[in-house]
Amino acid sequence: MHLNFIALAVPLFLLFMALEYRYALKKNRPVFHWRESIANLNVGIAERLCDLLTSGSFFFVFLWLHRHYAWLDIQPTVLTWILLFLVTDLVWYWYHRFGHVVNLFWSAHVVHHQSEDFNYTVSARITVFQSVLRGLFWSVLPLIGFPPHMITLLLLIHGAYPFFTHTQLIGKLGWLEYVLVTPSHHRVHHSSNPEYLDKNYGDVLIIWDKLFGTFKAEDQTPVYGLTQPLNSHSFLWQHFHFFMELCIAVKRAPGLLHKIKLLFGKPDTVDASIRPVLERKFQRKKKPTAPSAPLLKAISVQTAFTLAILFFTILFSYYLQPLQLLIAAVFIFLSVIATGAMLEQKQWVFPLEYIRLLLLCLFLCVTVPNKYVWLCSTSLLLVLLLYYQSLKSRYYALYPAS
Ligand SMILES: [Zn+2]
Ligand SMILES: [Zn+2]
Q1: Could you tell me the residue range of the domain that residue 272 belongs to?
Q2: 320 alpha carbon to ligand 1 midpoint, in Å?
Q3: How far is Cα 24 from Cα 120, in angstroms, rounded to an integer?
Q4: Ligand 2 center from residue 321 Cα (angstroms)
Q5: Which of 143, 145, 169, 363 is deepest in the core (most CB within 10 A)?
């Protein structure tokens, strides 16, 4: 059986999150907040799905670049593995630094910094756009001459390390603080304290920050999140708010030169007053109320279900037909959007739910093309639709339009 074992990253990282949660409870450290954690996990679900669709394609891009444009003919030896690790970490440093100081790139990276929590779930906040952007930066590696199979293996290890730097429960780590990016260094990076802004961009090694003058040690309590907090857990808003702000700022800028300057300028060049205008248009007037116990349960169950679908989609990806993969991908994307809408108590969540049910039914019919399966799934769909109709009236009564 040909399984895609990358899927195991999903339960493995969930296990570490659960362990951190239990340890935080034991130590009486309130580092987890339900809304934040659910929103973080849902961003991560979309990224893992997108990674499944993009990482394979990038392997072929690396192969093509290496075959036609490689500068050197590098063979795998101990020395070249070390060299590849160093170059990868250096490329990451600049990819990350550009992600903070260039508006166009910040519109993708901003999502990683929206959470006001700092725990392992925050490491999942990597956007769909970032997985594409990251691939473009990694293209330097085959151009230098590193073989694609070396790059792919190293990126797997390199990509796993930053998960462990997203925690408040590990203090300073002695001499390792001089060499590695530790949780302490990364706490600084995620903080909005003025002294901590645009610091500690490194991924595995902290030496690049020391070399390029962006290092800051953790010497005061960090305040996590953006300097202008988002106050929303909507998946769509989190992904597109800065992109829309940038579009409006560019539209308002006089002349082509000013527009280009804005696209490649720093985030503080975008007028901060644009956000409230967009919020009035797209966000609730009143803040969401505390969710009722059934809504809370529904959101948690939905997130767990989406995680399970993601896990099986990745695990059996080699066996899925393009149509099955397409249905599963659309289902997962609609699920994370619906969860964000429920967290924000939006009214338009029910049409999404109906489409999701329809997709589930469609997947069953495509996978098992049998008239009895078709009959059973259609009947189940009708029962569920009736059930959703009763839920809808209760939901609208509890969470009226603002
Ligand atoms: Zn960052
Ligand atoms: Zn981070």
Answers
A1: 34-287
A2: 35
A3: 12
A4: 35
A5: 363
